[in-house]
Amino acid sequence: MQHIFFTGGKGVGKSTLVESLLRGKENIGGFRTVKSGGAVYLLRPGEERSAENFLFPCDGEADPKRFDTLGCGALEAPCEWIVMDELGPREEKAAVFQAAVFRALDGEIPVIGVLQEADSAFLRRVADHPNVRCIEVTKENRDALYAELCAPIVGREIRHLETVDSTNEEIKRALAAGDAPDGLTVIAAEQTAGRGRRGRQFLSEKGKGLYCSVLLKPDCPPEDLAMLTAWAAVAVRDAIEKVCGFSPAIKWPNDLVADGKKLCGILTELVTLPETGVILGIGVNLSQTAEDFGPELAPIAASLAQAAGKEIDAGLLTFAVLRELDILYRSFPGKRADYLRRYGENCLTRGEVWVVGEDVRRHAVVTGINEDFSLLVRYDTGETGVIRSGEVSVRGIYGYV
Ligand code: BTN
Questions:
Q1: Which pLDDT does position 334 carry in this prediction?
Q2: How far is CA 310 from CA 286, 287, 303, 306, in A?
Q3: Is the CB of 191 under 6 A from ligand 1?
Q4: Cα angle: 240, vertex 267, 363; to 5 degrees
Q5: I need a labelling partner for 154 at 20 to 30 A (CA). Which of 70, 131, 185, 378 fits?
Q6: Taking Cα atoms as reference points, which of 67, 60, 96, 65 lies closest to residue 84?
Q7: Is residue 166 in contact with ligand 1, taking CB distance under 6 Å?
Q8: Greatest C-alpha distance within the chain
Q9: pLDDT for the residue 391
Q10: Strands, DSSP E only, in 296-389?
Q11: How many CB atoms lie within 10 A of CB 115?
Q12: What distance in Å separates the CA atoms of residue 331 and residue 362, rounded to the nearest whole number?
C-alpha cells in the first residue's frame, strides 16, 4: 500500500491536491486541521468547528491529550480512505495519536495527507515510512502533479469511431503503431467483427449498444493480470446500477445478467508486444428489442432498456463505465479484498452447474470462489476442480444462467 503525503510552502496548493485526490470518493475518514478565529480545530470530514473539536489556541501551547482523544477518534472510525490534513510538529508529544498515525500507515486503507514544513522527529518518521510517498509541491510542479495523480487515466484519451471491425483490434493496431497511451479508450458506434469470449461472435449493431475497449498497463506481478476480468465485471456492474437504477448480477466469470438474460459481456485480452498490457473489451446491450436479438438470442439476451423498462442515456452510461474503470485501475491490485467481496455478493453462479469443455460437459456443484476469482467446484465423482476463466464455460442446469 502506498500512501501519499504532500509537503511544500504555504499557498502552493497542497490541500487542493488532497481535495482533488479525494473528489468523488465516499466513506472518507481521518481529519483536517483548520485555523479559524485564533484557534486550530481538528475536524473529521463533514464536521463543523465547535467547542468539541477545538484543538489549541494559535498562540498557545498544544495539549497532547487533545490530539490523543480527537485525533485517535478520527483515525479509528471505519472508512475506505484516510485524510491527514495536516500533520505538524505540535503532535510531537502526543504519543497515543502518533501510534494511531503509524497504525494507519502500516495498514491497507490508503492515506492522503499533508506534512507541515517543519523539522520534527515525528514528521521525519512519517516521511521516511516505507509505505509513504512524500511529494514536494511547488507552484511549478502542481499542475503536472495534478495530471499525474488526479486526472483520470481511463478515458484520458478517447477515440470515437463510426465503424470498426472490433474495438479490441483497433487498440492492438494502435499498440503496434506505438500510439497507445495507458488508459486509451476506443468507442465505436458499430463493430463489423465484434468478438466474444471463446471465439464467439458479439452482435454489435449500429447505435444499439456500447462497444468499447480500454487499454490498461498495470504495474503488478503478471499473475495478477488475470483478475482484471472479474474486477471489470464489478466495475461495469456498479456503473449500470448507478445509471439504470437496477442491480445486475454477475455470471461467472464476467457476464452481467438480469432476469436470467445477458446484458453485457467482457472480453479481456493480454497483450505482450511491444509492451505488456490488458485490453478490456466491453459490450453492453443498450437498446435492442427482442426483434433485434432474433429468435436464437432473444431468450438469453436483454438490453438495458428492456431490463430497466426505460431508455438509457448512452452518454451517461459510457461516462459511468469509464469512471468505474478508472477507480478500478487506481485500486488495482491493492483493493483485491474489496473487489472480491463485491464480486461474491453479486455473483449468481452457485449451486448446480454444467462445466462445458470442448466436447464434454460435466455436472458439478459450485463450492466457492477463490482469492484469484477462479471457481471451485465438486464433480459428481466427488473430485474437486478449480476453473479459471477462458478454460471452459459454466452454465446453469436449466439454461444460460
Ligand atoms: C462475451 O460476451 O463473450 C464478450 C463480449 C465482448 C464484446 C466487446 S464489444 C467491445 C469489444 N470489442 C470486441 O470485439 N469485443 C469486445
A1: 83
A2: 10, 9, 10, 7
A3: yes
A4: 95
A5: 131
A6: 67
A7: yes
A8: 80
A9: 67
A10: 351-356, 361-369, 375-379, 384-387
A11: 25
A12: 36
Residue 381: which residues within 8 A CB-CB, separation 6 or more?
none
H or E element at residue 212: strand 209-216
Q: Per this entry, what is the length of the chain?
A: 401
213 lines ligand 1 (CB under 6 A): yes
Report the b/e string of 89-110 with b at 16+ CB within 10 A. bbbbbbeebbebbeebbeeebb
Secondary structure in 3-state letters for 53-120: CEEEECCCCCCHHHHHHHHHHHHHCCCCEEEEEEECHHHHHCHHHHHHHHHHHHCCCCEEEEECCCCC
What is the 178 CA–ligand 1 centroid distance (Å)? 23
Q: Can you give the pLDDT at residue 230?
A: 96
The residue nearest atom 16 of ligand 1, judged by CA position, is 281
Q: Which of 256, 267, 394, when mutated, tests ligand 1's pocket best, judged by the most ligand atoms within 8 Å of its CB?
A: 267
**Residue 171 C-beta-side C-alpha neighbours within 13 Å:** 33
According to the model, what pLDDT value does residue 135 have?
A: 95
Q: What is the mean pLDDT of each run of 10 residues along the chain (401 residues)?
A: 90 89 84 92 93 91 91 92 93 94 94 94 96 94 84 92 98 95 96 94 96 95 92 98 96 95 96 89 98 95 97 95 94 90 95 88 94 95 89 77 76
| pLDDT of 303 | 98
Which residue in this structure is represented by grid cell 484543538?
55
* Beta carbons of 182 and 216 less than 8 angstroms apart: yes
Task: Give me the amino acid identity at 160.
Answer: H
Cβ of 231 closer than 6 Å to ligand 1, yes or no, is no
For residues 314 and 139, the answer to whether their CB atoms sit within 8 Å is no
- 21-55 in b/e form (b: 16+ CB < 10 A) is bbeeeeeebbbbbbeeeeebbbbbbeeebeeebeb
Residues 6+ apart with CB under 8 A from 98: 91, 122
Residue (of 134, 200, 194) closest to 163 by Cα position? 194
Residue type, 300: I
